Automatic annotation (TrEMBL):
Keyword Nucleotide-binding: yes
Example GO biological process: SOS response
Lineage: Bacteria, Pseudomonadati, Verrucomicrobiota, Verrucomicrobiia, Verrucomicrobiales
Ranges where the ATP-grasp domain occurs: 50-303
Keyword vocabulary terms for this entry: ATP-binding, Ligase, Nucleotide-binding
One Pfam family named in its UniProt record: ATPgrasp_ST
Protein's UniProt name: Alpha-L-glutamate ligase-like protein
């Protein structure tokens, strides 16, 4: 039978058999019981998340400044101290909304990774929109975080168009269950948002090798712009990436979470953010239904409560065999 991600329509019975988790099941069975509401602000506020990470020795991009009011907007360039590349993001944004990546400056203009030019006024307008809540959760007034732009490791840039790919690891009670890369394309304008045309590339938990890739929900083997293979690429420093992801579980106490990371050429893996409601496209990127990974964890915790981080990592690697493409 043709694999489930190669067909646009499946019956509910087929989806259940394949272990596909929908948003209602995710929320009712995993997010709500595992993520106490009081803990959400630990991850919904990026400034607070970074502060907690620094306290625990988790590597994160350097913060250049936090824009909180119109005066900060007018004077944002003072926060940059002559730096030409940086990232602006809403403190309470989600799904990559409102993220602005500046790769450099030329003739007084700011340059996006695509080469598009922005004036100082354009950047100020973007900051004002963030403060007004245009990109925040619930549309509430927000603040803007200005931080270090990751210098992506070369293996990662080889499969991403003009933008550094990020890595998402989904964990359940501290056990890594699925991972993927989100690599940019010409269509996604250097961003790693799958809904804007980025690639979702599944990564094997055990080896850190890419095993499957999708573009707009369809399986692909090659990058649509770079024409390079997407399967069989080994993600550098995979062990460290998994360790950081598990540390984020310990840091937040959230039972069901997604951890986003990037690999810097000089600084290694950096934690970018933590998500208490990670999306479900990771199933498509891997060709694996989440239920196939979540149910074994539930059984494991019942039999072996209180496992250490190292024991949880070992279980995930041994239990979740490499995905075979085909």
């Amino acid at each position: 039978m043709t694999r489930w991600w190669h067909r646009w329509f499946r019956t509910p019975a087929e989806l259940r058999e394949m272990g596909v988790v929908g948003i209602n099941m995710r929320n009712a069975r995993y997010v709500l019981p595992s993520n106490p509401r009081k803990l959400y602000d630990l991850v919904d506020n990026k400034v607070r998340t970074k502060s907690l990470a620094v306290e625990r020795g988790i590597s994160v991009p350097e913060t250049y400044g936090v824009v909180t009011n119109p005066g900060d907007v007018r004077n944002f360039e003072r926060m940059l101290e002559g730096r030409e590349s940086f990232v602006i993001k809403p403190t309470r944004g989600s799904g990559g909304k409102g993220v602005l990546v500046i790769a450099g400056r030329e003739d007084g203009m700011y340059l996006k990774p695509s080469g598009a030019q922005l004036s100082v006024g354009d950047v100020r307008n973007h900051l004002q929109n963030i403060l007004a809540g245009l990109h925040s959760l619930g549309g509430k007034r927000d603040t803007a975080l200005i931080e270090y732009k990751v210098a992506p490791e070369k293996t990662m840039t080889s499969i991403s168009f003009q933008g550094a790919p990020d890595i998402r690891v989904v964990l359940f009670h501290g056990y890594p269950v699925l991972a993927m890369l989100r690599a940019s394309t010409r269509e996604s304008d250097g961003r790693s948002n799958l809904h804007q045309g980025a690639l979702g590339i599944g990564v094997d938990i055990r080896s850190g090798k890419t095993v499957h890739a999708v573009h707009h929900g369809r399986a692909v083997k090659m990058h649509p712009d770079l024409k390079v293979p997407l399967v069989g690429v080994t993600v550098p420093e995979w062990e460290r990436i998994l360790e950081i992801a598990v540390q984020c579980y310990e840091m937040t106490g959230l039972g069901y979470l997604g951890v986003d990371l990037m690999i810097d050429e000089n600084r290694g893996p950096l934690m970018i953010e933590v998500n208490a409601r990670p999306g479900l496209a990771i199933q498509l990127a891997n060709g694996v239904g989440l239920l196939k990974r979540l149910e074994p964890i539930t059984e494991r915790r019942a039999k072996h409560p209180g496992e250490t981080p190292a024991e949880r990592l070992l279980f995930s690697k041994n239990r979740f065999a490499p995905i075979q493409e085909g």
